[in-house]
């Protein structure tokens, strides 16, 4: 379904069900093939399978945002990075 029916897409890219970063990678590759003035429609859905309902440090983040606690720099870094450190380079 086109978000703006008055705009006709020259190409439609189905990214439904793809996990990040694949929709971005596929969109970039498709955009590189477009001519000036052409329109691409990217179809997708948010992939939320296997995601926790909240981040691991959810309560600490809420308390920090409400001003109830003031974590030091190391604690802030740990809340930001979380347990998935595969793509994070610290220092």
Automatic annotation (TrEMBL):
Belongs to the sulfur carrier protein TusA family. Signal peptide: none annotated. One of its GO terms (molecular function) is transferase activity. Keywords: Transferase. Transmembrane segments: none annotated. InterPro entries: TusA-like, TusA-like_sf. This is Sulfurtransferase TusA family protein. SUPFAM superfamilies: SirA-like (SSF64307). It comes from Cohnella lubricantis. Coiled coil: none annotated. It comes from the Bacteria. Residues 13-37 form the UPF0033 domain.
